[in-house]
Design a protein that fits this description.
- By secondary structure, the protein is mainly beta.
- It has 4 helices and 34 strands.
- The protein has a 21-stranded mixed β-sheet that branches. An 11-stranded parallel β-sheet has the order 2-5-8-11-14-18-20-22-24-26-28, with no helix packed on it. A two-stranded antiparallel ribbon has the order 16-17.
- Strand 16 (146-148) and strand 17 form a beta hairpin.
- The radius of gyration is 25 Å and the shape is elongated.
- The N and C termini lie far apart (63 Å).
Length: 424
């Protein structure tokens, strides 16, 4: 691509007089690899199918600028890997995905800007792993989730996302800005493991949960959704999610952090008609009542679809760095398994439940704004609290204290001496 030169490629919605068995995949199509180099500019308008497509791989280097102004389906479609070393790639719109990569994706530099609005569309979708070590990446997605009909075995929700990979995601450098606004949207969706050692990511989602009817399961928006494990050694990750049932960061595997900064902030109400009725069960039909009880087995009537800052299904281990969680309506940090904090800084806050602070394994303070509890004026034995107190003292010389909160509620303080953290 010659310096100072601008080129435009555009095709028609319908191809005429095509050769039999000839591929008509894109406005710019190659059965071999595509390499953009030089410092010129190419604009593509793909009205028939994809904007740019290759049966092989695609590479961008030098100072080339590629702009896909529109595409009936994917703006960029490859069967193999994509590597972006430098230059600029801008995708202004597509009928499906921005980049649909059949292999892995390596972003080492350059500027990438992608906007999509298609239902269940992804700004970037890959089959293989994604490595990001440089560059500036801006992703904007306003597509809604849809219900994929099919047999009872394969019918499920299909959600839009700024980035979705069926492999792992490694963030070593560069900057990611992702903004998703559709129903039950995803900022970053990683089907395997997410590792962050550098760079930064700022992810915002504002879509409500999506539910096909009041008696069906729902799917909610996630800023970051990781099916595997999440490992943080450096860098900065910020996720802000609002909307019914939103979760800023959701990890189905284990979470480990020894450095860097991670913050998950969520705000949003409960979901749909169940939200309207959850304080008035007498107004529900029998079927709705059975469903609500099934998702609130503690009979507290707290909606299942409340927002959470950070949710980890496996083990959470924090040895260093900073971890911040916030929720306006539910748990700031929820861990289904073991929590091990022996370093770094952990700060959580919730408008409803509690705030907690821990640093260097020395002290954890939990406060709530409930009706209050003062064991000094309570005749109940509270065997569980006494067990905790004895275990802290015997294992590490720690202490548990419970006092009334001046603003209402209770303050629980766990203190572990410096040498006791190693023993615990």
């Amino acid at each position: 691509m010659e310096a100072g030169k601008g080129n435009i490629l555009a095709d028609a919605e319908v191809y005429r007089n095509t050769v039999p068995d000839e591929d008509c995949k894109a406005c710019l199509f190659s059965e071999g690899e595509i390499v953009f180099c030089g410092s010129g500019t190419l604009s593509v308008i793909g009205r028939h199918r994809h904007g740019i497509a290759t049966d092989d791989y695609l590479v961008m280097n030098d100072d080339a600028t590629v702009i896909v102004r529109e595409a009936a389906r994917d703006a960029v479609h490859t069967n193999e890997f994509v590597r972006i070393e430098s230059g600029a790639l801008s995708i202004l719109g597509s009928g499906a995905d921005g980049i649909d990569c059949g292999g892995s994706m390596d972003i080492a530099g350059g500027m990438i800007s992608i906007t999509t609005s298609a239902a269940k569309g992804k700004c970037i979708k890959t089959v293989g792993d994604v490595w990001i070590s440089g560059g500036a990446i801006s992703l904007s997605n306003s597509g809604d989730a849809i219900w994929n009909t099919g047999t009872s075995e394969d019918a499920d929700y299909s959600c839009a996302a700024c980035l979705k990979t069926d492999g792992s995601l490694s963030l070593k450098g560069g900057n990611i800005t992702a903004n998703a606004t559709g129903l039950s949207t995803r900022g970053l969706h990683v089907k395997r493991d997410f590792t962050m050692s550098g760079g930064s990511a700022d992810v915002t989602t504002t879509g409500d949960a999506y539910q096909i009817d009041t008696l069906s399961d729902y799917t909610a928006s996630n800023g970051l959704r990781v099916t595997g494990n999440m490992n943080v050694t450096g860098g900065k990750f910020i996720a802000n999610s609002t909307g019914a049932g939103a979760m800023a960061i959701r990890v189905k595997g284990d979470y480990s952090q020894v450095g860097g900064t991670v913050r998950g902030s969520a705000g949003g109400e409960a979901l749909g008609r169940i939200r309207e009725l959850w304080k008035r069960p007498e107004d529900m039909t029998a079927e709705e009542l059975r469903h609500l009880i099934s998702v609130n087995r503690d009979h507290s009537w707290r909606p299942k679809a409340s927002a959470k800052g950070i949710k980890v299904k496996g083990v959470m281990t924090v040895r260093g760095g900073r971890l911040y969680g916030y929720s306006a309506t539910n748990e700031a940090i929820e861990v289904k398994n073991l929590i091990d904090i022996s370093g770094g800084e952990v700060l959580t806050a919730s408008d409803v439940y509690c705030t907690a602070w821990a640093r260097n394994g020395g002290k954890i303070v939990v406060t709530d704004n409930g009706r209050g509890f003062d064991p000094a004026h309570d005749s109940e034995p509270h065997i569980a609290l006494e067990n905790i107190r004895q275990r802290l003292e015997s294992m590490c010389g720690g202490a548990l204290t419970i006092t009334p909160n001046e603003g209402g509620g209770t303050v629980v303080t766990v203190t572990i001496p410096d040498n006791g953290a190693e023993q615990a």
